[in-house]
Amino acid sequence: MASPDAAARYLAQVPSLLVVSDFDGTLAGHSDDRFNVPVDRAGIDALHSLAGLPHTVVAVLSGRKLDELARICPVDHPVLKVGSHGAEEEGVPIALTADQQCRLDLITAELEELCAGTDCFVEHKPFQRGLHYRPLKGTDAAERMRQAALAVNPHGAEVTDGKFIVEFSVAEATKGTWITQARRRWAPDATVFLGDDATDERGFRALGGCDVGIKVGPGETAAGLRLAGVAEVGGWLAELSGLRRRYAPGGTR
After folding, report:
1. Which of 2, 126, 136, 246 has its CA 20 to 30 A from that of 209?
2. Are 221 and 198 in contact (CB under 8 A)?
3. 105-153: pLDDT as tens digits
4. Cβ neighbours of 193 (radius 10 Å)
5. What is the 3-state secondary structure (H, E, C) of the chain?
6. Which Enzyme Commission number(s) are listed (predicted)?
7. Which of 196, 125, 123 is nearest to 162 (CA)?
Protein backbone atom coordinates (compact mmCIF):
# COMPACT_ATOMS: atom_id res chain seq x y z
CA MET A 1 0.00 0.00 0.00
CA ALA A 2 1.51 3.31 -1.07
CA SER A 3 0.21 5.50 1.78
CA PRO A 4 -2.21 5.57 4.73
CA ASP A 5 -4.71 7.46 2.55
CA ALA A 6 -4.56 4.75 -0.11
CA ALA A 7 -4.99 2.11 2.59
CA ALA A 8 -8.10 3.89 3.90
CA ARG A 9 -9.64 3.93 0.44
CA TYR A 10 -8.87 0.24 -0.02
CA LEU A 11 -10.17 -0.84 3.40
CA ALA A 12 -13.33 1.25 3.01
CA GLN A 13 -14.43 -0.88 0.08
CA VAL A 14 -13.66 -4.45 1.18
CA PRO A 15 -16.83 -6.53 1.80
CA SER A 16 -15.93 -7.32 5.42
CA LEU A 17 -13.38 -5.60 7.65
CA LEU A 18 -11.71 -6.22 11.01
CA VAL A 19 -10.29 -3.09 12.68
CA VAL A 20 -7.93 -3.67 15.62
CA SER A 21 -6.16 -0.90 17.54
CA ASP A 22 -3.76 -0.77 20.44
CA PHE A 23 -4.67 1.73 23.18
CA ASP A 24 -1.67 3.39 24.86
CA GLY A 25 0.38 5.33 22.35
CA THR A 26 -2.23 4.78 19.65
CA LEU A 27 -5.64 5.94 20.92
CA ALA A 28 -4.19 7.71 23.96
CA GLY A 29 -0.92 9.45 24.74
CA HIS A 30 1.48 8.21 27.37
CA SER A 31 1.42 9.70 30.85
CA ASP A 32 3.28 9.38 34.15
CA ASP A 33 -0.16 8.71 35.67
CA ARG A 34 -1.27 5.47 34.03
CA PHE A 35 -4.88 6.05 35.09
CA ASN A 36 -5.04 9.55 33.64
CA VAL A 37 -3.87 9.26 30.06
CA PRO A 38 -4.87 11.79 27.36
CA VAL A 39 -7.42 9.88 25.29
CA ASP A 40 -7.94 11.10 21.72
CA ARG A 41 -11.67 11.55 21.35
CA ALA A 42 -11.53 11.58 17.56
CA GLY A 43 -10.07 8.08 17.47
CA ILE A 44 -12.60 6.72 19.98
CA ASP A 45 -15.53 8.28 18.11
CA ALA A 46 -14.25 6.86 14.82
CA LEU A 47 -14.04 3.35 16.28
CA HIS A 48 -17.64 3.60 17.49
CA SER A 49 -18.70 4.83 14.08
CA LEU A 50 -16.91 1.95 12.34
CA ALA A 51 -18.39 -0.61 14.71
CA GLY A 52 -21.88 0.57 13.78
CA LEU A 53 -21.34 -0.16 10.08
CA PRO A 54 -22.34 -3.42 8.37
CA HIS A 55 -19.76 -6.20 8.13
CA THR A 56 -17.25 -4.29 10.27
CA VAL A 57 -15.81 -5.72 13.51
CA VAL A 58 -13.81 -3.40 15.79
CA ALA A 59 -11.58 -4.25 18.77
CA VAL A 60 -9.21 -2.45 21.11
CA LEU A 61 -6.33 -4.85 21.84
CA SER A 62 -4.20 -3.64 24.75
CA GLY A 63 -1.38 -4.82 26.96
CA ARG A 64 -3.29 -3.51 29.97
CA LYS A 65 -5.27 -5.99 32.02
CA LEU A 66 -8.93 -6.02 31.06
CA ASP A 67 -10.42 -4.36 34.14
CA GLU A 68 -7.90 -1.52 33.86
CA LEU A 69 -8.60 -1.10 30.15
CA ALA A 70 -12.33 -0.95 30.88
CA ARG A 71 -11.66 1.76 33.45
CA ILE A 72 -9.76 4.15 31.20
CA CYS A 73 -10.68 3.30 27.59
CA PRO A 74 -14.08 4.88 26.81
CA VAL A 75 -15.31 2.40 24.20
CA ASP A 76 -18.61 0.57 24.48
CA HIS A 77 -20.31 -2.36 22.78
CA PRO A 78 -20.10 -3.28 19.94
CA VAL A 79 -16.41 -2.29 20.15
CA LEU A 80 -14.69 -5.28 21.76
CA LYS A 81 -12.15 -4.78 24.55
CA VAL A 82 -9.25 -7.26 24.78
CA GLY A 83 -6.61 -7.01 27.51
CA SER A 84 -3.31 -8.56 28.59
CA HIS A 85 -2.03 -8.71 24.99
CA GLY A 86 -4.91 -10.97 23.97
CA ALA A 87 -5.01 -13.23 27.05
CA GLU A 88 -8.18 -11.54 28.37
CA GLU A 89 -11.29 -10.96 26.28
CA GLU A 90 -14.62 -9.60 27.44
CA GLY A 91 -16.96 -12.42 28.43
CA VAL A 92 -14.30 -15.14 28.26
CA PRO A 93 -13.26 -16.66 31.63
CA ILE A 94 -9.57 -17.13 32.38
CA ALA A 95 -7.72 -19.57 34.63
CA LEU A 96 -4.05 -19.95 35.48
CA THR A 97 -2.51 -23.39 35.85
CA ALA A 98 -0.57 -24.19 39.03
CA ASP A 99 2.66 -24.09 37.01
CA GLN A 100 1.87 -20.67 35.56
CA GLN A 101 1.06 -19.28 39.01
CA CYS A 102 4.29 -20.71 40.47
CA ARG A 103 6.39 -19.11 37.74
CA LEU A 104 4.60 -15.78 38.14
CA ASP A 105 5.24 -15.86 41.90
CA LEU A 106 8.97 -16.43 41.36
CA ILE A 107 9.19 -13.62 38.81
CA THR A 108 7.16 -11.28 41.03
CA ALA A 109 9.51 -11.77 43.98
CA GLU A 110 12.56 -10.88 41.88
CA LEU A 111 10.93 -7.84 40.30
CA GLU A 112 9.65 -6.53 43.62
CA GLU A 113 13.17 -6.82 45.02
CA LEU A 114 14.49 -4.71 42.14
CA CYS A 115 11.86 -2.04 42.78
CA ALA A 116 12.48 -1.82 46.52
CA GLY A 117 13.55 1.69 47.50
CA THR A 118 12.69 3.19 44.09
CA ASP A 119 9.60 4.78 42.53
CA CYS A 120 9.40 1.88 40.06
CA PHE A 121 6.60 -0.64 40.49
CA VAL A 122 5.46 -4.07 39.41
CA GLU A 123 2.17 -4.34 37.53
CA HIS A 124 0.17 -7.51 38.18
CA LYS A 125 -1.90 -8.90 35.31
CA PRO A 126 -3.56 -12.32 35.25
CA PHE A 127 -0.81 -13.84 33.08
CA GLN A 128 1.92 -11.20 33.22
CA ARG A 129 4.12 -9.17 35.51
CA GLY A 130 5.61 -5.93 34.28
CA LEU A 131 8.30 -3.78 35.87
CA HIS A 132 7.50 -0.14 35.10
CA TYR A 133 10.51 2.18 35.21
CA ARG A 134 8.88 5.29 33.68
CA PRO A 135 9.31 7.10 37.05
CA LEU A 136 13.07 7.08 36.30
CA LYS A 137 12.60 8.52 32.79
CA GLY A 138 15.39 10.89 31.82
CA THR A 139 17.93 9.51 34.30
CA ASP A 140 20.80 7.04 34.02
CA ALA A 141 18.99 4.92 36.58
CA ALA A 142 16.27 4.16 34.01
CA GLU A 143 18.65 2.20 31.80
CA ARG A 144 20.20 0.47 34.80
CA MET A 145 16.74 -0.65 35.93
CA ARG A 146 15.88 -1.83 32.41
CA GLN A 147 19.03 -3.92 32.20
CA ALA A 148 18.48 -5.36 35.69
CA ALA A 149 14.92 -6.37 34.78
CA LEU A 150 16.08 -7.98 31.54
CA ALA A 151 18.60 -10.00 33.56
CA VAL A 152 15.90 -11.49 35.82
CA ASN A 153 15.40 -15.25 35.49
CA PRO A 154 12.27 -15.52 33.29
CA HIS A 155 11.41 -19.03 34.48
CA GLY A 156 10.26 -19.89 30.98
CA ALA A 157 8.15 -16.74 30.55
CA GLU A 158 8.15 -14.66 27.38
CA VAL A 159 10.04 -11.40 28.00
CA THR A 160 9.11 -8.17 26.21
CA ASP A 161 11.26 -5.05 26.34
CA GLY A 162 8.66 -2.33 25.90
CA LYS A 163 8.37 1.42 26.46
CA PHE A 164 9.54 1.95 30.03
CA ILE A 165 8.36 -1.55 30.93
CA VAL A 166 9.95 -4.99 30.94
CA GLU A 167 7.18 -7.57 30.94
CA PHE A 168 7.15 -11.30 31.66
CA SER A 169 4.25 -13.40 30.33
CA VAL A 170 3.40 -17.02 31.15
CA ALA A 171 0.51 -16.98 28.68
CA GLU A 172 0.74 -18.37 25.19
CA ALA A 173 -1.47 -15.53 24.00
CA THR A 174 0.10 -12.52 22.28
CA LYS A 175 -1.36 -9.78 20.15
CA GLY A 176 -0.30 -11.91 17.19
CA THR A 177 -2.12 -15.05 18.35
CA TRP A 178 -5.26 -13.03 19.16
CA ILE A 179 -5.29 -11.41 15.72
CA THR A 180 -4.74 -14.82 14.10
CA GLN A 181 -7.71 -16.26 16.02
CA ALA A 182 -9.84 -13.19 15.26
CA ARG A 183 -9.15 -13.53 11.54
CA ARG A 184 -10.29 -17.15 11.72
CA ARG A 185 -13.36 -16.28 13.79
CA TRP A 186 -14.71 -13.47 11.63
CA ALA A 187 -13.01 -14.34 8.31
CA PRO A 188 -12.74 -10.71 7.20
CA ASP A 189 -11.68 -9.83 3.69
CA ALA A 190 -9.10 -7.51 5.26
CA THR A 191 -7.76 -6.64 8.71
CA VAL A 192 -6.08 -3.43 9.80
CA PHE A 193 -4.01 -3.27 12.98
CA LEU A 194 -2.58 -0.07 14.49
CA GLY A 195 0.00 -0.06 17.28
CA ASP A 196 3.10 1.70 18.58
CA ASP A 197 5.00 -0.65 20.90
CA ALA A 198 7.25 -3.71 20.73
CA THR A 199 4.35 -6.00 21.65
CA ASP A 200 2.45 -4.77 18.60
CA GLU A 201 5.11 -6.16 16.28
CA ARG A 202 3.73 -9.66 16.90
CA GLY A 203 0.38 -8.37 15.71
CA PHE A 204 1.87 -6.89 12.56
CA ARG A 205 3.62 -10.16 11.77
CA ALA A 206 0.32 -12.06 12.12
CA LEU A 207 -1.32 -10.11 9.31
CA GLY A 208 -1.92 -11.62 5.89
CA GLY A 209 -1.28 -10.39 2.38
CA CYS A 210 -4.59 -8.48 2.08
CA ASP A 211 -4.17 -6.86 5.51
CA VAL A 212 -2.73 -3.52 6.62
CA GLY A 213 -0.35 -2.87 9.51
CA ILE A 214 0.16 0.71 10.69
CA LYS A 215 3.01 1.59 13.04
CA VAL A 216 2.43 4.67 15.18
CA GLY A 217 5.54 6.74 15.83
CA PRO A 218 9.22 6.01 15.15
CA GLY A 219 11.17 2.77 15.28
CA GLU A 220 11.79 -0.32 13.20
CA THR A 221 8.63 -2.24 12.37
CA ALA A 222 7.10 -5.08 10.44
CA ALA A 223 4.16 -2.81 9.56
CA GLY A 224 3.90 -1.56 6.02
CA LEU A 225 2.66 1.92 6.88
CA ARG A 226 3.29 4.56 9.51
CA LEU A 227 1.44 7.41 11.24
CA ALA A 228 3.25 10.04 13.29
CA GLY A 229 1.22 9.93 16.50
CA VAL A 230 -2.07 9.66 18.34
CA ALA A 231 -3.67 12.68 16.66
CA GLU A 232 -2.83 11.26 13.24
CA VAL A 233 -4.40 7.92 14.24
CA GLY A 234 -7.63 9.71 15.15
CA GLY A 235 -7.66 11.55 11.85
CA TRP A 236 -6.95 8.39 9.86
CA LEU A 237 -9.64 6.38 11.64
CA ALA A 238 -12.13 9.19 11.03
CA GLU A 239 -11.17 9.16 7.35
CA LEU A 240 -11.64 5.39 7.17
CA SER A 241 -15.01 5.62 8.91
CA GLY A 242 -16.27 8.30 6.55
CA LEU A 243 -15.13 6.44 3.46
CA ARG A 244 -16.50 3.10 4.64
CA ARG A 245 -19.84 4.66 5.48
CA ARG A 246 -19.96 5.77 1.86
CA TYR A 247 -18.70 2.58 0.22
CA ALA A 248 -19.37 -0.35 2.54
CA PRO A 249 -21.82 -3.01 1.32
CA GLY A 250 -25.34 -2.70 2.68
CA GLY A 251 -27.12 -5.16 4.94
CA THR A 252 -26.64 -6.04 8.57
CA ARG A 253 -23.98 -7.89 10.43
Report:
1. 246
2. no
3. 999 999 999 999 999 999 998 999 999 999 999 999 999 999 999 999 9
4. 27
5. CCCHHHHHHHHHCCCCEEEEECCECCCECCCCCCCCCCECHHHHHHHHHHHCCCCEEEEEECCCCHHHHHHHCCCCCCCEEEEHHHCEECCCCCCCCHHHHHHHHHHHHHHHHHHCCCCCEEEECCCEEEEECHHHCCCHHHHHHHHHHHCCCCCCCEEEECCCEEEEECCCCCHHHHHHHHHHHHCCCEEEEEECCCCHHHHHHCCCCCCEEEEECCCCCCCCEEECCHHHHHHHHHHHHHHHHHHCCCCCC
6. 3.1.3.12
7. 196
Q: What's the whole-model pTM score?
A: 0.81
Write phi, then psi, for 176 (nearest 5 degrees).
Answer: -70, -45
Sheet with 88-89, edge to edge strand ranges: 88-89, 80-83, 56-61, 17-21, 190-195, 212-216, 225-227
d(CA 239, CA 236): 5
Segment 191-216, tens digit of pLDDT: 999 999 999 999 999 999 999 999 99
Amino acid at 234: G
The amino acid at residue 37 is V
Backbone angles phi, psi at 69, to 5 degrees: -60, -45
